[in-house]
Amino acid sequence: MVRARGRRAAVNQVLACPHCSRALDLTDAGATCANGHSFDRGRGGYLHLLVGGRLSPTVTSGDTPDALAARRRFLTAGHYAPIARALAEAVGIPPGPVLDVGCGEGWYLAQLSHEQAAPGERFGLDVSKAAVQMAARAHPDTQYVVGTAYRLPVLDHSVGAVISVFAPHPFDEFARVLRPGGRWVTATPGPRHLQEMRPVPQGESALKTAERLARRSEPPPEASSAVHVEFTLELSDGDARDLFLMTPIRWQSGARVADAHVEASASATVDVWVSTSEPIAK
Ligand SMILES: C[S@@+](CC[C@H](N)C(=O)[O-])C[C@H]1O[C@@H](n2cnc3c(N)ncnc32)[C@H](O)[C@@H]1O
Ligand SMILES: [Zn+2]
């Protein structure tokens, strides 16, 4: 038996077979569909539902073990608690299970109350196996899945809320999997997010930079409402280093350039949109 101690069985009628899209029946050992496709559980009970070849290395560049460990340390310390609070408020009491797309190591989903998402009604998905393994070990009341946001292994109209925090947000996929009355909630960077740490990407013109930041001055146009969360973090050297390690800034700028910025900055601006869709029509 592979069931991790304390793991709460996830509800059925949410996950779909990545080969044929039929409902997956979840057991202690794994998951099977009516067409006989089967998937074993990995350690901690996660399911690997990514099919169709290897993803390019750039897709997973943010999930190296040091990035994941840094993110866990930084988030657990509570530096981003105001974002989690705004997210939880936007999620409200959803009409069904909650799915976290690009869940990383699972911190934001774990901040929701049991009233918002009961044990067994929490699903986290990430393309990074390393992130999902880490999440599954830490949060036994959540069903974690390795899969892609762009083709969610999730049944049509099966979840009450989809959240995506600094992660891909294909809204057509979100609309497909949401139940009537359900909503998606995203957290995306605003124009000043981590500006102290963010060097201009090499070779980018001033005009291009201005255009890129202007796009961030509004929440996603698909949102029906949005809350702007802005605050300043005072960071120890260790915190600043973790923040740098866990964000894509590291990959965009080249580690040595950004390292210098980290050492120079004791404070960092957090500027985030927490955006919500209209409820899906009944
Ligand atoms: C910046 S991290 C955010 C992680 C987490 N939501 C948090 O804020 O702590 C972005 C996450 O999106 C995941 N990701 C990237 N492309 C993805 C895809 N196509 N499908 C699912 N997850 C993806 C990455 O593996 C990574 O864990
Ligand atoms: Zn199948």
Features:
single chain; 282 residues; alpha/beta; Rossmann fold; 8-stranded mixed β-sheet; 3-stranded antiparallel β-sheet; 23% strand; disordered N terminus; binds S-adenosylmethionine; binds zinc ion
The helix-and-strand class reads: alpha/beta
Mean pLDDT figure:
89
Helix content: 25-40%
The CATH superfamily is identified as Vaccinia Virus protein VP39
List segments where confidence is low: pLDDT < 50 over at least 5 consecutive residues.
Answer: 1-5
| Associated small molecules | S-adenosylmethionine, zinc ion
Q: What order do the helices and strands follow? A: EEEEHHEHEHEEHEHEHHHE
Number of strands: 11
Strand order of the largest sheet: 4-7-6-5-8-9-11-10
Largest sheet: 8 strands, mixed
Oligomeric state of the chains present here: single chain
What percentage of amino acids are in beta strands?
A: 15-25%
What's the helix and strand layout?
Blueprint: E1 24-26, E2 30-33, E3 38-40, E4 47-48, H1 65-76, H2 81-91, E5 98-101, H3 107-110, E6 122-126, H4 129-138, E7 143-146, E8 159-165, H5 171-177, E9 178-189, H6 206-215, E10 225-234, H7 237-246, H8 249-253, H9 255-264, E11 267-276
Parallel strand pairs: 4-7, 5-6, 5-8, 6-7, 8-9
Antiparallel strand pairs: 1-2, 2-3, 9-11, 10-11
Helix pairs in contact: 1-7, 7-9
Structure description:
Helix 1 (65-76) packs across helix 7 (237-246) and helix 7 runs antiparallel to helix 9 (255-264). The termini are far apart. The chain has helices spanning 65-76, 81-91, 107-110, 129-138, 171-177, 206-215, 237-246, 249-253, 255-264; strands at 24-26, 30-33, 38-40, 47-48, 98-101, 122-126, 143-146, 159-165, 178-189, 225-234, 267-276. The protein has nine helices and eleven strands. It is α/β, with parallel strands linked by helices and 282 residues long. It has one domain (24-53, 69-276): 3-Layer(aba) Sandwich (Rossmann fold). Residues 1-5 have low confidence and may be disordered. S-adenosylmethionine is lined by residues 59-60, 62-63, 71, 102-104, 107-108, 126-128, 131, 148-150, 165-168. S-adenosylmethionine (SAM) binds next to helix 3.
